[in-house]
Specification:
Helices cover 66% and strands 0% of the residues. The protein has one domain (10-56). It has 2 helices and no strands. The longest helix has 29 residues, at 10-38. By secondary structure, the protein is mostly helical. The mean pLDDT is 91. The protein is elongated.
């Protein structure tokens, strides 16, 4: 607060809580991705790229 970055004592705590929430969401997304890979629920990157190029009307390779 002395630096002027925060107008009240609640603001730093709110920032920390929001940062922790984002971190927890990111960890959950990573864990879900790892589970998908371990159970075979994924598509190889090359196939994804081909599908995107096809949908956008590009050739097979850019």
């Amino acid at each position: 607060m002395a630096s002027g970055k925060y107008a009240s004592e609640d603001e730093p705590l709110r920032d920390v809580m929001e940062t922790l929430q984002r971190r927890n969401e990111e960890i959950a997304a990573i864990a879900a991705g790892i589970e998908d890979m371990q159970t075979g629920r994924y598509q190889p990157l090359e196939e994804v790229g081909q599908e995107i190029r096809r949908k956008l009307g590009f050739g097979e390779k850019l």
